[in-house]
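quick one, three chains, predict together pls
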Amino acid sequence: MTALTAILIRDMRIAVRVGGGALIGVLFFLVVVTLIPFAVGPNLPLLKQIGPAILWLAALLASLLALDRLFAADHEDGSLDLILTGRAPLEFVVATKGLAHWLTTGLPLVIAAPLIGLLLNLDAPAEITLVLTLLVGTPALTFIGLIGAAIAVTLRRGGLLLAVIVLPLTVPVLIFGVAAANTVGPVPFGTPFTILCALTLASLVVGPFAAAAALRQEME
Amino acid sequence: MAIADLANPTRFLKFADRTIPWLGGLTVIVFAYGIDQAMLAPDDYQQGATVKIMFLHVPSAWLGMLGWGVMSVAALGTLVWRHPLADVAAKAAAPIGAAFTLLCLVTGSLWGRPEWGTYWVWDARLTSELVLLLLYLGVIALWRTVEDPSRAARAAAILTLVGAIDLPIIKFSVDWWNTLHQGASVFRIGGSTINSSILIPLFIMAAAFTLLFFTLHLAAMRNEILRRRVRTLRLMQASAVS
Amino acid sequence: MNAVNHMGFIIASYAAAVAVVGVLIVWVTLDYRAQRLRLADLEMRGVTRRSAPARSEPAIEQAKEKA
């Protein structure tokens, strides 16, 4: 078993255990979506119109939740030092941890989204486009989040700082994700979706490199 | 055999071992009778056959609330009387109550689609029932997050008692607000408005579901006691190494 | 009253009920078996609630297995 596979399995196991982020992310997603009608009013046509945007926002916030502990937990128990001095390239290790985070936090959100979309009165075509955009976009949210998590690793109350750093970076993903999910009007699905794919691919590369650089800086 | 005997986990396990099989058997019998009567019941003059969903939806709703009620009594047992099995009862009831609340929402949604044309509306009753599900999931998350069982029990007990405010809200939501969900038609002052040919199968199904709840609850309590024994033994084992 | 179309919803509801009840029963049963197995395993290794602490060698093995 290679080092990277071992890290992947370990991270996934931790995520589903006590205090891990996996299913709580979906619960948070559900809670946020439930709050919206209390604030906006139970106007079903309105909810249907802003539905994809709400679901995207809620997915973004829920993705952020488990990022906080991603590197901080390893830093606290010393495994981060082991990783830094290990033979596997840090960029790959970081990417593997990102993959584990997406599999345990992002992917459950994508699966839960259609069911929660029913609460917002989304119809079948809207649900399908939403799921596609989330499927492509949530990895970007995770991998951009890696950067913030790495920067905030040595801070004890790093959670809010992490959010403040990461959220502006995710704005392009949010814009094109919602635009793609909303394509009923004149804008065809293809254009924003393609750009969303491009953003995700870019984040898969930039995220691990930037996060690795930040980790090396922080741990000096 | 007094209730006080049940305070001892070992005696409770014996009680559970004896009780669960025949309680389960009784549940199956009442379900068989209930489903038979439900299928034979006449169609509603307005809704047609979809009224048959009621035989699942209404008992599920009652069980969801019963679950939180059991948890609330157990919470008092933990906080006020320090009953040793109270937190076991609370922890065991949570997933069962949550499952039936979910079933209530799902069956209600499937009933709403043909009746109202939509799977969901944000009216007072549906929303308060959804909030109940969120409360359940929250308390389950709390149980799983705190390592030490007795600390988890106290935290969960407080959350349970605070969340109990949702139960009267659910019950009276159809009276207090203008809702799409129909008003109270079973338990109301002046008697039920449902014809007995449908009401009686409904009560039989409710009884069956309630028996199912307590069978599952006893079994889950048994599992939780065993789980705590395993944990204690493992902790002993770990400290024996040093 | 389009009773034929509504059949789908009625069947789906009963299927959902069967599924939920089924999952609960399976959960309770599997959990019971798992706990019984673990208790039997611990007892076999000599760890019981009223026994003296186990000898150090098997205890180290048990601790490794627990980790």
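The CA atoms of residues 14 and 20 of chain C lie 10 Å apart.
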